[in-house]
Amino acid sequence: MQTIFVLNGPNLNLLGTREPEIYGSDTLDDIARMLDEQAKKLGVTIDMRQTNHEGVLVDWLHEAREVGAKAVLLNAGAYTHTSIALLDAIKAIGVPVIEVHLSDPSQREEFRHISYVGMAAIDEVKGLGPRSYSVALAKAAAL
Questions:
Q1: Annotated binding residue at 137?
Q2: Strand 71-75 relative to strand 44-50: parallel, antiparallel, unpaired?
Q3: Active site annotation includes 53
Q4: Which end of the chain is less congested by CB atoms within 10 angstroms, N or C?
């Protein structure tokens, strides 16, 4: 069975309590359970992880290449708007990456309008709350 990495960046471990008016009340564990159920129906497995450290995200992107992952769903959090290292890693790995956001960064503060992740990702799903992950997983499974 093919594996899809679901990588989450800084502060996403605080979902459920962090600015629920923006990010909702679901926790990352809630989203993981939803994706596990969906993955079974789609015939794929997910490997879901979270870190607050940019270099760890880069290492995990490299690992996705090394293990032959089918795709990566990447919610890089604030690193989306700052990390050229993530941009370079996405370009280097040869694994399709779909950018994921619970909110719609283009409708938020101006500094969130740039996406270095989006410069290399094959697609993006944003602004659907936890459903953003579900839609992105369906897209990744269909690749």
A1: no
A2: unpaired
A3: no
A4: N
pLDDT of residue 20 exceeding 70, the answer is no
Q: How many other CB atoms are there within 10 angstroms of residue 29's CB atom?
A: 12
Among 79, 101, 116, 133, which one carries the catalytic annotation?
A: 101
- CATH homologous superfamily of domain 2-141? Dehydroquinase, class II (3.40.50.9100)
The first and second tokens of residue 97, run together, are 């990456």
Q: What share of the chain is helix, strand, coil (3-state, %, to 5)?
A: 45, 20, 35
Please check if 88 is assigned to a binding site: yes
Tell me if residue 101 is catalytic: yes
Is 75 assigned to a binding site? yes
- Over the stretch 79-109, which tens digit does the pLDDT of each residue have? 999 999 999 999 999 999 999 999 888 777 7
Residue 17: the pLDDT is: 76
Residue among 23, 79, 116, 133 flagged as catalytic? 23
pTM here is: 0.93
